[in-house]
Design a protein that fits this description.
By secondary structure, the protein is mostly helical. Helix content is 83%, strand content 0%.
Length: 120
Amino acid sequence: MAEFHGLAARVTLLLALLVAGWSIALAATRRPLRPVLLGALVWLVILLAASGALGIGVAIAAGPPADPLHLVYGLLAVAVLPGAWAVARLREDARRTVIVLAVASLVELILVFRLFQTGG
């Protein structure tokens, strides 16, 4: 199960890099949110949740991670993008939505990197 957790984490990292770069490029060029990017954001959250579920299985089978911050970063990583989407959609300003999601995707990328550093 640990191999699947690691594989899901690596795929998540690649998607987080792609989403962060893409959303920052859209914000910098003042372009609207693309439906494909929104789909990538949804898939990123799904991958994070799946990796977390696998991580829970690894923690049950082999013990918790060496650094307890791994759990905190995991919970934050799963919550960042849905939270940012909820904040961005409070107003119908397409420009603000892209900027909020660009910042959130950058925060997401930092959290995913921290998950790799704190994972055991």
